[in-house]
Amino acid sequence: MNQQLKVLTTAKERRQPLGFSLGTYLRSMDWILAGATLALVAYGLLMLYSATHADTNISTPFYYVRQQAVGLVIGIVVAVVLSVANYRWLARRQVYIYAVTLLLLLLTLVIGHGSETVGANRWIQLPYFRLQTSELAKLLLIVSLGAVLAEGVELRHRFRFVILCVLYLLIPSALVFLQPDLGTMLVFFAILVVMLVVWGIRMTHLGILAGAAALVSVVVLRLVPAVFGVHLLKEYQLQRLTLFLNPEKDPTRWGYQLSQSKIAIGSGMFTGKGYLNGTQTQLNFLPAHHTDFIFAVIGEELGFMGAVLLLGLFAVIIWRAFRIVRMSDDMYGSLIAAGIAGVLVFQVFVNVGMTIGIMPVTGIPLPFVSFGSSSLVVFLMAIGLLESVHVHSVAGRPKGP
Amino acid sequence: MILEPAKKRRPAEDDSFLGIRVGVLMLIALMLFGVLGFRLWFLQILSGDQYVVEAKNNRVREVVVEAPRGVIYDRNGRVLVENRAGLSVGLLPMDMIDPEEDPQGFDAELSKLSVLLGMPKADLLSAYDKAKKDPYVTYTVRDDVPENPVVTYLKEHSQEFPGIEVDTSFLRRYPFKSLATHLLGYVGEVRPEDLDRPEFSSLEGGAHIGLEGVERQYDSLLRGTDGKKTVEVDAAGRPKRFLENKAPKPGNNLRLSIDADLQRAAEDAIVDGIRRAHEAGKTKAAGGAVVALDPNNGQVLALASYPEYDPSLWVGGMSVDKYAELTNPAAHQPLFDRAVNGLYPAGSTFKPFVAAAALNAGIVTKDTLFNCNGKFTVKGQTWKDWNPNPLGDVNMLQALEQSVDVYFYNLGNLFYEQPSPVLQNGVKLFGFGKPTGIDLPGETTGSRVPDKTWKAEYYQNASAEDRAWKPGDDINLAIGQGDLLVTPLQMAVGLSAIANGGTLYVPKAALSITDASGNVVHPFDPEVAGTLGMASDVLKTVRKGMRLVTEDPTGTAYKAFEGFPISVAGKTGTAQKKPDDDYALFMGYAPADGNTNPQIVVVAVIEQGGHGSSVAAPVVRQVMAAFFHTGAGTINAPQTE
């Protein structure tokens, strides 16, 4: 009986090395998540075309769309692979993943490139590809931090362990801060907070962390410059962080971006000026309209309806992510889903908030929509991971009514 | 073990209120999305209209297309003022070096431009400050910039001059140079105080309007309506497409009543008059005026004031140095229009008006005789005649012919004895004491015919004795002296009334307004200011006396008009204006034979030129010679009054 069972199991394992059949896989997929993601990506490509087709410095109107489409194909392939693979495999390689993350960020600092004007190192030049390491680092950190937290789930009442986890995240945060990439650092913090909450951190510990964070912010922003004259934040970073409160004060530089973005979105009114008809976008008044400010293109050309549709698609994805947090068979899966949900909420809120003048300019892209293959591939990978957690949680369950 | 066993539900205790924690996180996410949605609703639905306007302001630029100003012709259709294309240099701040980003570069750019345009850098800086208010619009700093070498240099070194734009504009051109400059006036940038006036309310700063002369008077007709190109531009200010193109409407053309040849003759005659004065030792003579009117309708045939100025100095902006030169006392006020605004004592040229007033009031008849022996004494005060010789009994015709002062002293004394100011009332009928209403801007209101009320008011701080109206006041007024002030134009209007039988016309420089295709849009009909209401005998007597002035060998202007083929009636004047040298005056009309209607009235004044007979009368003869195409002939004028 025992023997026979084993033979049957191995036979089944041989036929289904992943532990489930294709049919089971397809049935276990979160199709709503996949559908919303594809809709969002398609929406993003359409808007990217509108934002860039009239640019004068490109050879074909499809220049940016084509690049983004390459990222899309790669991203979908990687996402499918990730969704099939068992995410638990990643947990056992936490140390390597973490090491690779730190190595990538260090490499970026040493041999990275960036835009000359800001003097930041943002990406590593690979053959055919320019890797924006901080984008990849977000997902790698979710995976590795999740593993640490999941392993230490019994220690969540120990503040020392919590501190350890914070330090675990502070090291890569410091590396992106040095690039300097303030935006990604804030994304890391958002990941940490959301994952800690889902993990089950004690509320007192969370309170202490929040207090410490507030204290550090004050010291960095006010005390250190005042007492030692050392500015940990660069001038432009501070300007961008505070300017959104009063963009008219400086209508030529950063304030110009904000003013133009608000004008674009506001002038879209309810139904928008029509696809390809946004004057702010098409006449270049809107800066960075294919990257950080692409939401303003949507707001201008498709109006309030288009903006709400976009936010609705994000809401669906985030809702599914939170659903997966609760559905997951194990803590690791919950933490991965929570981290991804956290990144999405944070980036959407900060990016869209920036374009409508309620959040500072931090250079955080709009997931799936902003131009940039690194970001697109990484977020598709994140969806792949969510699907993996979903598939492996649903597929293992007995079928029943 | 890192992980709980696979395919096993997580133990319930591990969840540690996972549901609640996720629920809270989802609630936070929902709230954040709510904030975004609310803000979008606020921006797009509530404030959308305002942002639509801002987006439009961003992309829509209005470029003004200058309307060519109307052409000004003389009565025979000769062009007095026309347009030519000129090049202007302006600042386009959005393309210039930002002084905040690169102060040295900005400074260097302005310095180079300053040298190139020959403009002080401070002027360029203040222009930049004004231009910055609308950084997408070119602000003109200099009109009429020479193509070589300035514009060529700018174009060849355009990289060194970012945001420095060269445009074409319409500039005024004066084919006859300074001819009739006071009458024509000039065009320049609208003055700030003018922008508040209703007729200029549609203009913006920097627009060009007529500042003086008929350019000013008929500005609204000459100016035309600027066109407008509405252009959609991108963020860099590059035009992308035309949204609207409103063509400029050229200004109407103005035809003046002056004759360019006669005007030229009048201006030359003043110069000759001054030369004649200098030859006679009157070296202070430096200015003069000539007015020629058609006595039958008030049309201005010539209006000359000397010294004159070059109106093209205003083209492209009057330079500070040139302006200082023009306003220097040594230049004798070339900007001042002596013909319309020069205030002079009329001297003996006033006598015909006084004679008419006396006859009209019935104080004397034309045959009343006064004994004239070189001086006149009343109440212990003595007035001398310019002619010390005893003339015996003199009637009105002789008094006018020989300009006998004592005769008019007697009249003045009689006027003083009248219960009402009949002298003042009489001469005011001819228009003295108030503006003529000529179609030129800013005619002086300083003309005055002194009377009792005026004197009491004018000397209100003096003693009662000094303020009192005395016989001497009327006696001085009777020979055109004392506190009398008249303009050459007023004299011409008054004389026209004598010549035409009693109608006072408003002098008019404009003949008609024609549109671009030459059709008359608006004719200017003669405008009657009033009638003298004097008996025809009164004017006949005065006209006869004035004719004797040139035709009787004892007349004061007999020599000046000797040999002139057309009959001229006139009156000389040598007005005293202490401490200046005497002012030479003459007024006359022709033909004066009584058979044909007089066709022209001419008044000439040579400031500090000495005798009217020898200095001013030949001026009038020259003008009349030009009018009748007779040739001036030999002018041989002795030094009499």
Give keywords:
heterodimer; A: 401 residues; mainly alpha; two-stranded antiparallel sheet; 16 helices; 70% helix; 2% strand; globular; B: 641 residues; alpha+beta; Penicillin-binding protein 2a (Domain 2); five-stranded antiparallel beta sheet; 36% helix; elongated
In words, what does this structure look like?
Chain A is an all-alpha fold. Chain A has one domain (42-52, 61-201, 234-395). Helices cover 70% and strands 2% of the residues of chain A. In chain A, a hairpin with a 2-residue loop joins strand 1 and strand 2. The radius of gyration of chain A is 22 Å and the shape is globular. The model of chain A has no long low-confidence stretch (mean pLDDT 87). Chain B is 36% helix and 20% strand. Chain B is of the alpha+beta class and 641 residues long. Chain B has two domains: 61-85 and 166-256, Penicillin-binding protein 2a (Domain 2) (Alpha-Beta Complex); 260-628, DD-peptidase/beta-lactamase superfamily (Beta-lactamase). The longest helix of chain B is centred in the N-terminal third of the chain and has 29 residues, at 18-46. Chain B is built from 22 helices and 23 strands. Chain B is elongated, with a radius of gyration of 36 Å. In chain B, the strands form seven sheets. In chain B, strands 2, 3, 4, 5, 10, 18 and 19 form a seven-stranded mixed β-sheet that branches. A five-stranded antiparallel β-sheet of chain B has the order 12-11-23-22-21, sandwiched between helices. At the A-B interface, helix 7, helix 9, helix 12, helix 14 and helix 15 of A face helix 2 and helix 3 of B.
